[in-house]
Amino acid sequence: MRDIRGKIAATGKEAKSSVYLDYVTNLVYTTPSFAGFTAFVSPGNEYEKHTAKTGYDNTFTIWTGAGYKKSFEISIGTITLNPSVKYSALERYTSKTKSAKKTTERNELRTGITVSLTAK
To answer: Three-state SS for 19?
Structure first.
C-alpha cells in the first residue's frame, strides 16, 4: 500500500493511494515415471494491477515438457542426473492502459540439466 499525498509534479493532478495486486495461478500435471522418463503440462495465469491506475497486465502461459532421471551410487552417496526440456506452447501477454490494449504472443524453448549429490 502506497499512501501518497499531494500533487504529481509531471501532471499537476492529485496523487492517489495505490495497492499493488498480483494474482498467480498455476496447475501442473506430471505423468508417472516410465523407465526414468516423465512429461508434464502446466497452464498458468498472472494478473497484475495498481488500484490507483486504469488498466492491468495479464500473462497466460501453457508449458509442456519432458525429463529423464537417472541415479548412480558412488562411495560417498548418490549422484542424480536430471536432463529436461520444456516448451511454452503459448505465452500471451496483455497490457491494458486507459487508452489502449496490446496483446503479444511468444514461444520459448528451454533445456537444462540438474546434477545433485545426496551424501550418505
So the answer is: coil
CB 82 within 8 A of CB 114: yes
> What pLDDT, in 10s, does the model give residues 76-91?
999 999 999 999 999 9
Which positions of the chain have pLDDT values less than 70?
1-6, 8-9, 15-17
Task: Specify the pLDDT at position 5.
Answer: 61
d(Cα 15, Cα 7) in Å, to the nearest integer?
5
Following DSSP, what letter does each residue of 52-107 receive, concatenated?
Answer: TSS-EEEEEEEEEEEEE-EEEEETTEEEEEEEEEEEEEEEEEEEE-SS-EEEEEEE
Q: Which three cell numbers stand for residue 53?
A: 491506475
State the Cα–Cα distance between residues 30 and 38, nearest whole angstrom. 7
* pTM for this predicted structure: 0.69
- CB neighbour list of residue 22: distance below 8 Å, 6 or more residues apart: 46, 47, 48
